[in-house]
Structures are given as C-alpha cells and as structure tokens.
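ok here's the first one, seq then struct tokens
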Amino acid sequence: MANICTNKMFLSSKNRELIKSIVKKMEETFSCDVVNNNEEDDYREIDFDSRWTFPSEEMEQLTVSLSNADDLYIRVLSYEFGNDYVAYNIYTSGEWCDKLADRY
C-alpha cells in the first residue's frame, strides 16, 4: 500500500476564469476538496492527496500551458507523516520553486 501525501494548495489570480480552469484540472487529476469555491473570490484553497510526495510532474503539467497567468500564485504544503516528509512548493512568475530545498 502506498503512503498518501496530503497536499494543501492555495492559488490566486485576478483572472477568475484562469482560477476556474485550474480548479477543473485539479478535480480531473486528483480526488480533491475545494475548500473555498466562491466564484466571486480571486483565490481558492484545495486539499488533495497524492502518492508519496508532492506531485511535481502533475503540477508542472498543470501550469506549463497556461496563458494569461502573469499574476498566478500557487503554494502547496505537502506532508506525509509516515515517512517524515514535508515539502513547500511555490509557483510564481511562471516557475515552480521548492522553498525548503532552497534553504540549504
């Protein structure tokens, strides 16, 4: 049985259609819970699970083809207690960055 990694995502953009698109892709890719799904807001919070670690390939695929995403900001806190795993990834200015790895 695979260990399940818990992921807490926050995303924001002034482009509400972009947010809607990302939420839809997240729902198609993961079993997730959209904590705040008010279409009037310019942010969303999404909880989702992945296997073992932060799903970097899926997140890269999610963001690689985005247009009109200049102000898109995403942060994901990932943790899996069984393996003492924690990661904190941020997407801004068109790039993903592992904030914990950058500290060393």
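and now the second one, same deal
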Amino acid sequence: MNGFDIVMVIAIILFARLGVRLVTQYIKMRKDKDNDESNP
C-alpha cells in the first residue's frame, strides 16, 4: 500500500460517513414531515 492508496481509503471512509449522515437526516426529516401532515 503506497501513500495514494492510503489517501483513497481515508477519502472513501469520509464520503461513506457523510452519505450515511445525510441519508439518516433525510429519513428523520421526512418522518417528521409525515407526522406533521397527519396531525393537524
């Protein structure tokens, strides 16, 4: 493993964590919006 491989692995891990965070926030926001619409 040379330096470029290590940098690529770190970048992939960071992007994966960012993607998981965005998806979880999107699901939570959508669930809250559905609850607001069903409860006037």
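notes on #2: Helices lie at 3-38. The mean pLDDT is 88.
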